[in-house]
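S.,

Sequence below, as promised.
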Amino acid sequence: MGRTMSSSSHCCLGCIGRTIKSVNRNAYIMIAITGKGFCKASAIATGLIMNNILRIGKVNVIGDVILFLGKLCVSLFCALFAFLMLDTHKYKSAHNKISSPLFPVLVSWALGYIVATLFFAVVEMSIDTIILSFCQDAEEHQGNAQYAPPLLMETLDSQGEMQRLTQGS
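The prediction came back faster than expected:
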């Protein structure tokens, strides 16, 4: 009974923590866009997310896959570079001889993944800023973003999707 209570409370606290992190992140973006206070910006961000759930969901799913592949490619390139560097004649001689390149390659892979994660966190914040800016622009102009580039408008236009969903039910 105690283990069940502990694991369920741990799960609930984890969900609350992720929600607060998301609200804080989006609120900070809306503070930068609108210049309003934290609570007002948080309410605006939450409203935008709820009103544009299809647009934001589409961008987040595709973006998460691409960002993960980017992290994986960068970290594997670091590991490959470390292996190729350790495979040279310099590290095969008696003085600098490395018996197995496995540990240095794994360390290079892990450090590459950490650095790529930090870098792509900035890219992810940029993506979230762009999508929230687009949603804010669309909301201010009756559903049609006025200041967005044509390619972004074409990609994120969910008017057709919303009409299909509402007509189907």
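The chain has six helices and no strands.

Coffee later?
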